[in-house]
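Need Transport permease protein's 3D structure for a figure. Predict it.
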Amino acid sequence: MGDILWLMRKTLRTTFRKKGNILLYLVTPLVGIFIALLANGDQGSELTLGVVNHDNKQISMETISFLKGLDNIRVKEIQEEDVKEHVISGKVDSVITFEQGYSESVLTGEPDSLDLTSIKGESVTGFVKSYLYQYIDNLTALSKAAEGELDTFSSLYHDYKQTDFQLNTTALEDSSTSKSMTLSALGFLIMIMMISAANLSEIILAEKANRTYFRLLSTPISARKYIFSNVLVNMMVMLVQVVITLAFLSYVFHIDLNISLWKALLVMAIFSLISVGVSLVIVAFSNSRGAANALTNLIIMPTVMLSGCFWPVEVMPESVQKISEFLPQRWTLDTLTKLQEGSSFGSLYLNILILFAFAAAFFLIAIYKFSRNNSTKSFI
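Structure prediction for Transport permease protein:
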């Protein structure tokens, strides 16, 4: 035990010999938080809706008035020829086009001649549809009651607007933004943890290169103790990075994690084992620091991107999504997402077992390779 503690102190002194290294390992995780804030900072802003009205009749005009009365929506009437330019340039988030015949289609009880255009996907169109289609359904019900007679419909619609409904409203907090920020920040933390683990494990190669490793093995210190002490230091640094990130998210930026802190800490602690395991595999298969750096770049960045750490995995092609299911980063994010959705740890036993299986597999591969590599040649 004394040998392991001595080796741990030695590894820490080697790691933080330069003051800049302290900033590298302990402050860099905060970069992910700032990137997440920048990426999600504009969410919840007012939606700009472009309207093209080719119908120009009472029902279409009333529908436009309804849209203008909605909260968080700004309606901008534009011409048909300007639709493409406004959508592509981002001047409007979505465009609704009322074709000729829209009013008549509502009067006949079969709403039609309405187009909704957006390049931002369901996040925008779904919000508009939820209000617009409900309103059109109400108009359709009135038109059926009026049996298609415009005057009767106008009278019913006037009474409908004048009806004094008693409505109690309760504001619900939108947690989607905080969930997105949390996953983005933790996604970048995953990348930083893997890079930090690789850099810390690279100390093994550095000490082999300067022959310190072999001098240590000439003492009562064994190779097993040496590697174990490196793993412990690696784990300590990973856990400090996780604690700093979670603390800043919760107590400095006041972002609701939608997960208990201890649950998030436990999941990331399991991933820290995976990070250390991957770093040891890289070191075990490298015969120089240059080779280790090349393997680090080849393994970490592509897998981080494929697993959805930088963007939602749903935006990637289905074939790529299937590949991501074989990556530990994906299972880590999936576990965090399900915890945010209210799942208990007990119900996620399969995810937890898979994460431990990844960690065990990497450690076993590293142990096997280290046991087979007895070369004492000089490292370049």
